[in-house]
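Hey,
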Amino acid sequence: MAFKPNYNQQRAERNRLKQAKKDEKLREQEEARARRKAMQATSDPSSPPSPSDTEPAS
């Protein structure tokens, strides 16, 4: 005899897989963002510093 389907368990498993997929996608996006930022910083050293990087003269 087959088991009765456990809908709550199936739903929890689907939600867990969806969350894991979202987390993986977010992690990949953050890594790509960090790589782009690092590439931009190393390839453009002649850019003027931002106001937050400079200290006030007083």
